[in-house]
User: Fold this.
Amino acid sequence: MTQTHFGYQTVDESEKAQRVRGVFDSVAPRYDLMNDLMSMGLHRVWKAYAVLVANIGPGAQVLDLAGGTGDLAKAFARKAGPTGRVFHTDINESMLRTGRDRLLDEGVVLPTIVCDAEKLPFADGSFDVVSVGFGLRNMTHKELALAEMNRVLKPRGRLLVLEFSRVAPPLQRAYDLYSFKVLPLLGRWVARDEASYRYLAESIRMHPGQEELKALMHKCGFGHVDYHNLTGGVVALHVGIKC
Ligand SMILES: C[S@@+](CC[C@H](N)C(=O)[O-])C[C@H]1O[C@@H](n2cnc3c(N)ncnc32)[C@H](O)[C@@H]1O
Assistant:
């Protein structure tokens, strides 16, 4: 049996997706509130930056993977307009349902599909832009997922990976303190789930850093890859072009 990481634990590959599902089933109802509290609102800025860089125009075909409660899909839909199409997708029904209900309350109607980024139900060359916000870290086979993202992009299409990354050394101590002391407590008080927020802190440390992810994206078929560090590397936006 092949093994992988779930945070700092080593688990069978077959177990990881189940454990990740457990995390997001548990946090879905309080996900948006926790995002605002944990990041002190910064996740909105990181996402706004990703939308700016995506540079989506009217008529664009966009696939948002691991879309959760739909922040990115909603922003993309505004840019793509009525002639474009934005798919809001996630492997987790609880997250997707929470997001779909929120978008409907805001008058945004998007095709919403439960799908695993590692096995995409779309034809080759379907999209101008594929995005994955804070989702790649949770996937068991990142290479498979990145290769799938490459497959469904049109030639010259762009992949945007917004993800936690490696912070600049001067921030390291404060960031570790915040991640391992404050986050789990916030999780306990607000989401009644300390373990899931401990997993968040651990999974960030296990995820490839900026240069490693760039190399992985090249390996998975992206001819040009660049990244932008945000908030001192707390988050990085990687942009890969299929060429
Ligand atoms: C931290 S949330 C991010 C949600 C949203 N993109 C955002 O930025 O707020 C991570 C999401 O990744 C999803 N996910 C994990 N593994 C996945 C996979 N293999 N395919 C698609 N989605 C996945 C989870 O269900 C969860 O909703």
